[in-house]
Every structure is written in C-alpha cells, then in structure tokens.
Amino acid sequence: MRPLTPEETGTFFEKLSKYIGENIKLLIDRPDGTYCFRLHRDRVYYLSEELLKIGSSAARDNLLSIGSCFGKFTKSGKFHLHVTALDYLAPSAKHKVWLKSSAEQQFLYGHHVMKSGLGRITEGTEQYQGVIVYNMNDLPLGFGVAAKSTLAIRNCDPMTIVVFHQGDTGEYIRNEEFLT
Amino acid sequence: MADTQIVVDKVLQKDVNKVFSTAVENAELIDIDEGLLLATTTGNLNIRATHDFTRQNGEEVIRQSTRSAVQTLFNSLWQLPVEQVEGTYVVTLPEIKMWLPREKPIPKKRAVTKWQEYAKSKGILNKKKSRMVWDEAAKEYKPRWGYKRANDGTQDWLIEVPANADPMEDQFAKRQTAKKERVAKNELQRLRNIARSQKRKVPGVGLTPTEQPSKDTLSKALVVARKSTASLGKFTEKLPKEKPSKFTGKKRKFEPSIGDLKNERERQLKILDVNAKKVPTINVTKATNRALRESEEQRSRERPSRKTPKKQKGKGASAGRKGGGNKKNRVKRNK
After folding, report:
1. Which residues of chain B are at the A interface, by a Cβ-Cβ cutoff of 8 Å?
2. Residue A127, domain extent
3. A34 and A6: one domain?
4. A180 in a domain, yes or no?
C-alpha cells in the first residue's frame, strides 16, 4: 500500500474530474475526518486515516482490499473507474442522465443507452462528457460517457446510442471477481 | 712507597665497595617496572641540597641517583625466576605495569557486506559445515570446496543430454561457461562490497547478458545504447518515433504509506489546481457553434422571401415559428 505518485494522482484526478469536475475537493478535504487515496496492487482505494493505520499492519501479500476501491490503473498507466466509486461520484455529479424504466434493465445488463430509453439529460452536456446515469426515481444506476451532446441528441433518430456504458450497479453481480 | 700503596689500597677498597656493592639507599623512592625494564626515581632530585652547587656536584648527584635506580632494577630482576638456557641466564619478564599509549590508531571495524547485513536482519546464523564430504562416486571423503572437491560437476566424464535440450549443444562447455559466470558474478559482488565499504561510486552495470531476454530488454538496450557515449548520451539524437523510455535506471522511490497526511492533501489540491488551469476557459466548440447559429439566424432574418416558413427543427423551432406552437397561444378565429 503506498500513496499515489504525482503522475498517478494527475491521471486519476483527470478521470474523476470528467464526472465530478472540481468537486474532487470535497473528497480530499472532508469536514468529518481525514481521508486519503492509497494504491495497492494497481487499484486506488479511498479510506479514512484510522482505517489506513489499521490496514498498514497487514502484510502486502495478505491484504486484498481496504476502504472503497475507486478503480484501477492499467499496465500502461491509464486509469479505469469502477462502479464501486459510484457512491462518491453520484452526490457531486456535474452532468446527469435519467433513464426510462424500459431502458433501465438494458443498462444494468451492460448495454449502451439508446435515445429511445433516454428520459432526461442535463443541459449543456458536451460530447464525450462523463455522465452519471439515474433511473426515474433518482437512484444512481451507474456512469457513462455521453456519445452526443445535448443539442445533437435532439436532432438524432431514436435508435442511436446516446450514452456509452462505463459502469453500472449490475456489475456487482456480473463482475464480482474483478471488482474487489 | 709503602704509604702510597696503602693509600691506593684504601682508596681502591673504598671504590671497590662503592662500585661492587649492591646496596641501594632510598630504595623506596624507586619504582620498578620489570616488564618494561623501567626504573623511575620518584621525588625530586635535590641538586640544590648539596652545599656546593657546582656543575660537578650536580653531575655527581645525578650519577648517584641513576646508579641507585639501575641497581634496584637489577636487584629486582634477579629476584625473578631465573632459568639457564644454553649457558646463559634467562629471566621471564612479568606483565607490564605501566601501559604505554597506542603507537598506531585503533583499527576501524570491518564493513558489513550486503549478505551479512541481510543475514543479521533476518536472523540467519552461519551453520558450521564440515570440510570433508562423502563423495559417492569416488567412495571416499573429499573436501566440500576447493581442489579435488567432491561432486564436481565440471569434472564429470559423462553428461546425459536432457530431453528438452538441443542435441548438438556441448553440455561440457555449457557447464564450463556456467561456472565461469558464477565466478565472475562472485567477483563482481566482492568488488561491489569493497566499493560500498569505501564509499566509492560504481558505474551501473546496465544490461547483463541473459539466456532468456524479456519483453522490455530491447527497450532497455535502446536506452543503454543511447547513453553509452563519451558525453553520456547528451548529444545523441532522438529517433523519429522514439518515445521517452520508462527505464531510467533509477530505483523508484515512494512516499511512506502513513506519512504527513496534511502535506499529502495540500499536494493533491495543488495538482487539482494545475489540472484546472490546463482546461481552457473558453469552450471553442461551443463558441463556434453559437457564432454559426447566430450568423444563420441573421441570414434567415435578412431573407424574408420564403413563402412558407422552412420547417425548422431544434432550438430554432420555437424561436422562428410565428404565432407559437402551442394550442394555447393560437389565436382563436371565428369566435
């Protein structure tokens, strides 16, 4: 377990800021305690100071997971965000997408969102902007990347993909082994 | 003549007594260290105490004092156990009482080698091994290491070729080269230990030849090759598509896991600020889109020639349509 190097922190924050923008500050500077990011086996974990102290007494080989996993770094240094970070992304999301009840199931199975399944979308979403996907009852389902900007979505036909799927809560069941 | 003889005899007698007597006065003032063959007269030499402070008297006093000291030393020497060795008298001197200061500085402790450091940290003890080992082939005891050692692989007269090996490969030569490499490696480690103990800088080895080169050996070799010039690669030109290599030859250093958390937070916030600055404040696509739309709207206003308004989709729909799109706003006719 080690802190992230400046380069890794840069990549990680860049990815996060695509979804929550400058609200990352709320993750770093929390009023209810000191929280930090730690890297363990290429995965980034978000944990409190007390948990850090307890966890650092475990041997590196024996420690599987600690705190909340935000995602993992690939071998070439890119960062992939996992659905386990949703609890922290959802409250501070910048751009949101609401799905119709019919499309909810498809998204939770890992498919992309088509225009026919789109309920609402925040104004001013640009193309390839990170978005958090909600269902009609304002429950966060996952996150993705907007395939088209809000303007373009109005003009396109209902069978085009509007949101690329990146992570959904269905992965807790489908991708159990890879999530830690 | 006889008088003078008597006088001479008397003088000689006196002198003889003086010269050959072993009596010493004030023996308690003399410290003897037999081990160092040292006799020290403690107390002051009272030269001034003599009536005539002439040079000769002073000399006399010193000579007397010296004689006493030496006599005492020899007296004590004869007190020690005397042996006769080949006709001469030999005396074993006892331990030195007065310690002399060191002639040379205290030797420095030997530097610990890398293995010794590791063994100490892990608590590995050196188990004593016997010099002789039973050699099954020769049916006798042979040294474990060194000349004519037991189980010497290099001296086998017959080597079976393993199933997965090239049949044309020289197995004997293979063993010889393996031994040479082991010896060379040991020598390298030894020299490195010495360099470390003397705190001298050793140039990096770079890339050592291996039998199974890994995937990144090529990229490493490229980096090493570009650095292997007289000016350490300062003027080596970059290849057209060469990317900066990850292999810097330096060991990676990480911050401790439980370091200064406040410091860490500040650094992260700084990185956030840097990232925020990188994003341009003007969104180019948005600005161009807006400009394009404005110019289009302007053009459509300047050209009222169209009889039926062109069907506009999107944002222009509600803006351009006359009379509003809603049923609510429709002007009621024929009321």
Report:
1. 254-255, 257-259, 261-262, 264-265, 267-269, 271-272, 274-276, 283, 285-286, 289, 313-315
2. 95-174
3. yes
4. no
Please tell me the distance from the alpha carbon of residue A67 to that of residue A43, in angstroms, as a whole number: 11
**What's the mean per-residue pLDDT of chain B?**
82
Q: How many angstroms separate the CA atoms of B131 and B150, rounded?
A: 11
Domain match, A109 and A165 both? yes
pLDDT of the residue at B56 = 63
CB distance A66 to A40 below 8 Å: yes
Find chain B residues with C-beta within 8 A of A155's C-beta: 313-314
Do A3 and B255 lie within an 8 Å CB cutoff? yes
pTM, entire model: 0.55
CA B39 to chain centroid, in Å, comes to 50
Q: How far apart are CA B223 and CA B113, in angstroms?
A: 31
* Contact call for A13 and B314, based on CB within 8 A: no
Q: With an 8 Å Cβ cutoff, are B289 and A151 in contact?
A: yes
Taking the C-alpha atoms of B197, B199, B201 and B205 in order, what is their torsion angle to the nearest 10 degrees? 20
| pLDDT single digits (tens) B209-257 | 788 888 888 888 888 889 889 998 899 998 888 888 877 777 888 888 8
Note whether residue A126 is domain-resident. yes
* Cα distance between residue B79 and residue B76, in whole Å: 5
| C-alpha–C-alpha distance, residues B190 and B198, integer Å | 13
Asked if the Cβ–Cβ distance from B315 to A151 is below 8 Å, we say yes
Nearest CA in chain B to A76: B246
Residue A164: strand, helix, or coil: strand
Q: At A163, is the secondary structure helix, strand, or coil?
A: strand
DSSP code of B297? H
Q: pLDDT digits over B144-189, tens only?
A: 999 999 988 899 899 999 999 888 999 999 999 999 999 999 999 9
Determine the pLDDT at residue B265.
92
Q: What is the DSSP annotation of B44-90?
A: ---STTSSS--HHHHHHHHHHHHHHHHHHHHHHHHHS-EEEETTEEE
Q: What is the CATH number of the domain that holds A157?
A: 2.30.130.10
In this prediction the ipTM stands at: 0.86
What's the number of domains chain A is made of?
2
Under an 8 A CB cutoff, do A13 and B259 touch?
A: no
Nearest to A13 among B254, B257, B272 (CB): B272
Task: Note whether A155 contacts B: Cβ–Cβ < 8 A.
Answer: yes
Residue A179, in any domain of the structure: no
Smallest Cα distance from B265 to chain A, Å: 6
Q: Residue B320's pLDDT band (boundaries 50, 70, 90)? A: very low
Which residues on chain A are in Cβ contact (under 8 Å) with B255?
2-3
Chain A residue with minimum CA distance to B274: A10
